[in-house]
Write a structure and sequence with these properties.
The complex is a heterodimer of chains A (about 500) and B (about 100). With about 500 residues, chain A is α/β, with parallel strands linked by helices. In chain A, about 35% of the residues lie in helices and about 15% in strands. Chain B has about 100 residues and is mostly helical. The longest helix of chain B has 15 residues, at about 25-40. The chains are: A alpha/beta (about 500), B mainly alpha (about 100). At the A-B interface, helix 9, helix 10, helix 11, helix 12 and helix 13 of A face helix 1 and helix 2 of B.
């Protein structure tokens, strides 16, 4: 059977258990697809030996009937996750040559669940970016194109390699991380599904830190069902992450009934931004109608502080980043600059960090340093944290009024061309996250579901935002939306 | 609030990132763009609002203050750019 790499997690799982296929066949199919897709620059560290070894082990377990949830399913891992014995660079020059001696909790859980790691995936450096253009490995490329136009498009960011790989069927699914939209925006740009769970649902241990109060890992998949399967395998309490929640992880897949009758879906008026393309507005209206037809009650809601989410984020995230990235000092791991005669330890730090960090990372670390510096801490950092409390309260109020989920666009546009934003000021790029960043600030679960294509044939996604810890209910609403939208388009193969 | 090249140089120093003098004006410019964007926060009435410390109301878990692992000097030093005799090596710190 050919094209096994095009299977969903759920279908491949069922075929493996029915002994119709083996994990080795499935894994080899993905490895061939990866080798033929270097033009996408999605996989940046390939691990075929590890993959085949795990596939063989999975086949052995399947044969004995002792198969955990993701047994034998080949996936990609974002380069932000530390993987034992495999380079883990966060797409940064400063972690050149870093090979962890330990495994992140999430990638370890996925391994324990029987999944097969195919390799590490491209991303923006330290997850800072919305286009995968800040990576030390170079740009990841979107498998989608504007019709016959060959302009290379961004797969989004920061989990751009993950989105590109899943969309192009190089792997069945991939891990992503999301600090301001880094799972949901790339998924929207590539016609894939991505969920950022409630803050604390997945352990952050072993995931290279960007902004600790916002970072969450999540699955990036071909379908909502796959997202449910993979999230369950990734989630759970971890004593090594003090912010990880000690809550039971439900069987998310079992909650996918598609029945959303009587659910209250909020439509926030503040997300109707001036200048949003008609296509996005139409997509949103269509999605609203689909949920209504499925039996949901649609209510207009107000999230009055929405406008201030991005500016608050661009204080809080750089502040936390400047603190987290202080560890890259050229002493314990990664790159150290070659020093001149007479250079002391300060010159070592300064030269190492200037050489090792890319431009966007340097800029954010310095903005963070500034907003935390004496005299500005209250004016910027504390004010932003206060505004964050108000943004969270907006959501709390909506949920207290009985809203079960909130429907919004996932992105303000479809995928743009690589290099098209290079000359713009940095704030223009930051606006990509305008619909997603509120969710991180409020710690809520959010999922991006592909529901249509634009006039150029590029995928567009809608976002559903759920109540804290109710990923199961959120996934079910997303499942109903997915069923109604019937999005089946795939990128035509050119790579 | 406008950032001049002198402030940009000070921030770079605090962040321990070497920025060449000729790059400072452009950097100051970028800071001003970003800070201009952040200034919007001043429109919000935050009177009486506590700064958020944790997005989930739960209290951080505590554990007993005991050693839980160790004896892995080799692993810890393995990725060091310069490790000697069981230590991380750095340029001379004390004159």
């Amino acid at each position: 059977m050919s094209d096994l790499n095009k299977l969903t997690l759920a279908d491949a799982r069922d075929k493996l258990r029915a002994k119709e296929i083996t994990s080795v066949e499935l894994t080899e199919s993905c490895l061939s697809a990866i080798d033929a897709a270097d033009a996408l620059n999605a996989f940046v560290h390939k691990t075929p030996e590890i993959a085949l070894e795990r596939a063989k082990a999975a086949d052995a377990r399947l044969a004995t009937g002792d198969a955990p949830a993701m047994c034998g399913l080949p996936i990609g891992i974002k380069d932000l996750f530390c993987t034992q014995g495999v380079p883990s660079q966060a797409a940064s020059g400063i972690l050149e040559g870093f090979v962890p001696e330990y495994e992140s909790t999430v990638s370890g859980k996925l391994h324990d669940a029987g999944s097969v790691m195919l390799g590490k995936l491209n991303m923006d450096e330290f997850a800072m970016g919305s286009s995968n253009e800040t990576s030390v490995y170079g740009n990841a490329v979107n498998p989608w194109r504007r019709g016959n136009d060959e302009t290379p498009l961004t797969p989004g960011g920061s989990s751009g390699g993950s989105a590109s790989a899943v969309s192009a069927d190089l792997c069945l699914a991939a891990t992503g991380t999301d600090t301001g939209g880094s799972i949901r925006q790339p998924c929207a740009f590539t016609g894939t599904v991505g969920i950022k769970p409630t803050y604390g649902r997945c352990s952050r241990w072993g995931v290279v830190a960007f902004a600790s109060s916002l970072d969450q890992a999540g699955p990036m998949t071909k379908t909502v069902r796959d997202a449910a399967i993979m999230l369950e395998a990734m989630a759970g309490h971890d004593p090594k992450d003090s912010t990880s929640a000690d809550l039971a992880v439900p069987n998310f897949e079992a909650m996918l009934t598609g029945d959303i009758k009587g659910k209250k879906i909020g439509i926030p008026k503040e997300y109707r931004l001036d200048g949003t393309p008609d296509e996005i507005v139409k997509l949103w209206d269509n999605g609203t109608a689909m949920l209504k037809d499925a039996g949901a009650e649609i209510v207009d809601i107000s999230l009055p502080h929405t406008k201030y989410a991005l500016p608050a984020y661009y204080v809080i995230a750089p502040a936390e980043a400047s603190s987290n990235l202080a560890r890259y000092d050229g002493v314990r791991y990664g790159h150290r600059a070659t020093l001149g005669a007479g250079d002391g330890i300060t010159e070592m730090y300064e030269k190492t960090r200037a050489e090792g960090f890319g431009h966007e990372v340097q800029r954010r670390v310095m903005v963070g340093t500034y907003v935390l510096s004496a005299g500005f801490y209250d004016a910027y950092y504390n004010r932003a944290r206060r505004v964050r409390a108000l943004i969270k309260k907006d959501f709390d109020d909506a949920f207290a009024a009985g809203v079960d989920a909130i429907l919004t666009p996932a992105t303000p546009s479809s995928a743009f061309g690589l290099g098209e934003m290079t000359d713009e000021d940095p704030v223009k790029m930051y606006l990509n996250d305008v619909f997603t960043v509120t969710v991180n600030l409020a710690g809520l679960p959010g999922i991006s579901v592909p529901t249509g294509v634009d006039a150029q044939g590029l995928p567009l996604g809608l976002q559903l935002i759920g109540r804290p810890w109710e990923e199961g209910d959120l996934l079910n609403t997303a499942y109903a939306l997915e069923q109604a939208a019937g999005f089946v388009a795939k990128p035509g193969r050119w790579w | 609030m406008s950032i001049d090249t002198q402030t940009a140089a000070k921030v770079a120093k605090l962040a321990r990132i070497k920025v060449e003098d000729e790059a400072l004006p452009a950097l100051a410019n970028e800071f001003n763009t970003i800070l201009g964007f952040i200034e919007q926060l001043n429109e919000v009435d935050v009177e009486g609002v506590e700064p958020m410390t944790s997005v989930t109301p739960q209290r951080l878990k505590r554990r007993e203050d005991v050693v839980t692992d160790g004896n892995m000097q080799d692993k810890i030093l393995k990725n060091a750019p310069d490790a000697r005799e069981g230590f991380f090596a750095v340029p001379k710190v004390v004159e």
